[in-house]
Design a protein that fits this description.
4-stranded antiparallel β-sheet; 4 strands; alpha+beta; Alpha-Beta Plaits; 2 domains; about 25% strand
Length: about 210
């Protein structure tokens, strides 16, 4: 069966273009909808990123505020360390007077006894002591205990610059117990009275003991 289209050619062309135009419109609307969907997704992602950025900024602000609040403790810690350093330096330079006195007493010869012991961290030590001297004994023999004392003092690690200041022959009055019905009496004892001086090392300083 044959169909004969008697419409003019111009009408046929217009109808064909109208069909194409409909598809072009549909395709255009579809593209616009796709673009709108992509734009909406991008906006949602941007909003999420902005939310994350805002949260990070708020966290950074909180951390900065906390750091400013804690900075005072850091300053206090530094101040404490400075004070501790000063205290340690002062303690390191302190002389243990009791230990030095004990050391001096332990190294004295048995035949030497102290009359006076003065210890000062700045000026050093001054000691006054005595040792027996037999009658008729020469000075070089009597003074051996004095020399022994100086040598032993110079060997102490905390002492240095040991000097013999004075040394003289003297008599020391020894009180004898009274007999029955009698009074106590004083018996003279020949002694060598001497005085020595020495410097004291501050704690932590190198030792350089020497006998003069």
């Amino acid at each position: 069966m044959f169909r004969i289209n008697l419409l003019p050619k111009e009408v046929l062309e217009r109808r064909r273009y109208e069909g194409w135009f409909r598809w072009v419109v549909i395709l255009g609307v579809g593209l616009v909808l796709i673009m709108l969907g992509v734009y909406a997704l991008l906006m949602v992602e941007v909003a999420a990123k902005n939310g994350q950025l805002q949260a990070i900024q708020e966290s950074a602000t909180q951390r900065k505020t906390l750091a400013e609040q804690l900075s005072i403790f850091q300053e206090k810690e530094q101040e404490l360390k400075t004070r501790q350093s000063v205290a340690q330096t002062a303690l390191a330079a302190r002389v243990n007077i009791g230990q030095v006195a004990e050391d001096v007493s332990l190294v004295l010869p048995d035949e030497v006894w102290l009359d006076l012991l003065t210890i000062n961290q700045d000026t050093g030590i001054v000691l006054t002591a005595q040792t027996p001297r037999n009658a008729g004994q020469s000075n070089d023999v009597a003074y051996k205990s004095v020399a022994k004392t100086l040598v032993r003092l110079s060997e102490l690690p905390d002492l240095y610059d040991v000097w013999l200041t004075t040394a003289t022959n003297a008599q020391w009055q020894q009180w004898a117990p009274p007999a029955a019905g009698a009074q106590a009496s004083a018996l003279p004892v020949n002694v060598v009275t001497f005085q020595a001086s020495t410097k004291v090392h501050a704690a932590g300083t190198p030792n350089s003991a020497g006998t003069k």
